[in-house]
């Protein structure tokens, strides 16, 4: 007569038998000891069971083995347990497979989870339900394989043999996947179908779709979704509010963001660290740094402590607006509150101080960072090397690079590019070329930035042929050139009196939508033609410049003013030329550009005509342009 399976024993009796063998069962039911970390334990159990023949392991023992092997990621032994259970015709439970799916997810093995899902019924006679389906779908989504997740979803749902009906969790995962792939319209369609599938969207569903809409710049639709959410009786949580507040702050719409914060508080959902961090970020983007600082105090008053993200955002805001010294004071405040500045904060500050030519302050901060036990990493070392190169202290930069390597940090393309730029700026092109070769020897790939720096330096140092060779090498390797590299090559050709060659590259830029020439590129060509006294060709380039939506700047004006005074007979002061330029810009409704030209005219004591003033004022006073002009004035005052 076959031995009774442990699964069919009463629970109390089974638990007791695991601790103290029951007199009547001591011979019939024995459990060998095993270690979950040992891959050989399953072999021992199976071998001992076969030899003794007096018992048959219970299903619960197998389930325990599955959990233990899954938790230790011993998938080889796990497979053996499943196959042994199959041979002994044990009962498989869906929850056992879900444990394995989660383990595959943590081990970043999504395809293993998919394979096991399909084996469940075919090989182990365990019917899949929406629970196991969701578990595998979540593993794929968490791994970031969104296209694969969609493929798996449609395959399973379309399978009549599986007969799995998605539930609310499935739709949440599906909407997240579609939003990550940029298929927001399809995500909205799925969202609208949820009630038709006898499901109801929850706060997570709404938040996920709001996030997807915001990423696509469809903030108004996302805000409408918040209103709909409340009408439908779903209570908005922190995530929903914060998604919208963050998006509005990034857009610079701080007024609407503030209203949402008020709405959030009225709903009994107090702003948290994420909310305040979004507001601080928005204020920093708009240059309202003092208001961002005062928000810290409000944060503390509301018993919401600023964290590293808050301080990092604020410090980065000060650095970006040329106020690195104020950012350093924020760091002091951070440390007084018991926080420690991390390597990213120090990197931002050190880099910012160097850019503001505050060498001593930057070096003092570097020493303080090391003394406080904050170990510099690649980012901080690179920032220091870049700053030393900007100061022309190439020997010191080399020493820091040597220290960086000795401590096990590998220089990246930014590090080497800073060194190359530094050597080129002091006129030592030989050492710059050696740095370029050093990159290759250290297996540091040349990218578009390093190519731009190298080409620019070679052209500025009169090494046009070498620059041309590097240019061809870059293109042959499939690396796309950027505007800086193009402009550098055009400048090199123009300096070598090969303007037509430079013009060919210029026309190549015009054919590339992502590589439109900037004002620097135009000024290079304008200066080349004006130097050759080819004013008509220069005017042609100026016309292209205006047609392409690029506004002239102070340098553009100076190039033409110098030419009109020195190369035209009789000489002209350039008043009429600039006046006409203002009119052309105003008629194209490019008021900011027109205003800049007027600034140049006033600075040069070349007063615009009364009719020119009238055209500009008329454009400024158009309803659509008034707010734009006011905003521009404010941003200039703040900046």
From TrEMBL:
The keyword Repeat applies. Coiled coil: none annotated. InterPro entries: PPR_rpt, TPR-like_helical_dom_sf. PROSITE patterns: PPR. The keyword Calcium does not apply. Signal peptide: none annotated. Keywords: Repeat. It holds the Pfam family PPR_1. PPR repeats lie at residues 167-201, 202-236, 237-271, 272-306, 307-341, 342-376, 377-411, 412-446, 447-481, 482-517, 518-552. PANTHER family: OS03G0856100 PROTEIN, TETRATRICOPEPTIDE-LIKE HELICAL DOMAIN SUPERFAMILY. Belongs to the PPR family. P subfamily. NCBIfam families: PPR. This is Pentatricopeptide repeat-containing protein. It comes from Clitoria ternatea (Butterfly pea).
């Amino acid at each position: 007569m076959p031995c009774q399976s442990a699964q069919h024993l009463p629970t109390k009796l089974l638990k007791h038998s695991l601790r103290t063998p029951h007199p009547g069962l001591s011979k019939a039911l024995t459990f060998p000891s095993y270690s979950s970390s040992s891959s050989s334990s399953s072999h021992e159990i199976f071998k001992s069971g076969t030899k003794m023949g007096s018992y048959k392991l219970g299903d619960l023992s197998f389930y325990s083995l599955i959990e233990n092997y899954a938790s230790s990621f011993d998938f080889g032994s796990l497979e053996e347990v499943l196959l042994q259970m199959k041979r002994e015709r044990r009962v498989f439970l869906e929850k056992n497979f879900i444990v394995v799916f989660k383990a595959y997810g943590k081990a970043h093995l999504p395809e293993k989870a998919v394979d096991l899902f399909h084996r469940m019924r075919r090989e182990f006679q365990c019917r899949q339900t929406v629970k196991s389906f969701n578990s595998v779908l979540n593993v794929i989504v968490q791994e970031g394989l969104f296209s694969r997740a969609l493929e798996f979803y449609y395959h399973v749902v379309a399978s009549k043999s599986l007969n799995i009906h998605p539930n609310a969790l499935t739709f949440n995962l599906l909407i997240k996947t579609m939003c990550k792939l940029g298929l927001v319209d399809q995500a909205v369609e799925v969202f609208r179908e949820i009630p038709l599938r006898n499901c109801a969207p929850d706060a997570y569903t709404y938040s996920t779709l709001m996030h997807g809409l915001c990423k696509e710049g469809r903030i108004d639709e996302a805000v409408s979704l918040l209103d709909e959410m409340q009408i439908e009786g779903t209570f908005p949580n922190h995530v929903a509010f914060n998604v919208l507040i963050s998006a509005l702050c990034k857009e610079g719409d701080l007024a609407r963001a503030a209203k949402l914060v008020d709405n959030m508080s009225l709903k009994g959902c107090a702003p948290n660290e994420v909310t305040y961090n979004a507001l601080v970020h928005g204020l920093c983007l708009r240059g309202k740094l003092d208001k961002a600082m005062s928000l810290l105090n409000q944060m503390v008053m509301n018993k919401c402590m600023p964290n590293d993200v808050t301080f990092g955002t604020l410090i980065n805001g000060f650095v970006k607006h040329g106020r690195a010294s104020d950012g350093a004071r924020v760091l002091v405040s951070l440390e007084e509150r018991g926080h420690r500045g991390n390597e990213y904060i120090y990197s931002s500050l050190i880099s910012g101080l160097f850019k503001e030519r505050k060498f001593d302050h930057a070096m003092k901060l570097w020493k303080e960072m090391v003394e406080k036990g904050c170990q510099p990493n690649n980012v901080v070392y690179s920032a220091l090397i870049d700053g030393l190169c900007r100061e022309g202290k190439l020997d010191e930069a080399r020493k820091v690079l040597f220290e960086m390597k000795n401590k096990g940090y590998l220089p990246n393309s930014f590090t080497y590019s800073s060194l190359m730029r530094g050597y080129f700026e002091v006129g030592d092109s030989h050492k710059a070329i050696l740095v370029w070769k050093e990159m290759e020897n250290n297996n540091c790939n040349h990218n578009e930035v390093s190519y731009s720096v190298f080409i620019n330096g070679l052209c500025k140092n009169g090494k046009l042929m070498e620059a041309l060779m590097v240019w061809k090498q870059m293109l042959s390797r499939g690396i796309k050139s950027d505007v800086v590299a193009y402009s550098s090559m055009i400048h090199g050709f123009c300096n070598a009196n090969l303007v037509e060659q430079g013009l060919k590259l210029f026309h190549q830029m015009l054919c590339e939508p992502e590589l439109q020439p900037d004002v620097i590129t135009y000024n290079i060509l304008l200066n080349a033609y004006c130097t050759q006294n080819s004013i008509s060709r220069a005017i042609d380039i100026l016309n292209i410049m205006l047609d392409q939506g690029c506004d002239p700047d102070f340098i553009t004006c100076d190039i033409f003013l110098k030419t009109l005074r020195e190369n035209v007979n009789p000489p002209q002061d350039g008043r009429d030329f600039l006046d006409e330029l203002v009119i052309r810009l105003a008629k194209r409704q490019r008021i900011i550009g027109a205003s800049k030209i007027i600034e140049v005219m006033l600075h040069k004591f070349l007063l615009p005509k009364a009719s020119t003033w009238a055209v500009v004022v008329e454009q400024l006073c158009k309803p659509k342009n008034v707010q734009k002009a006011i905003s521009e004035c404010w941003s200039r005052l703040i900046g």
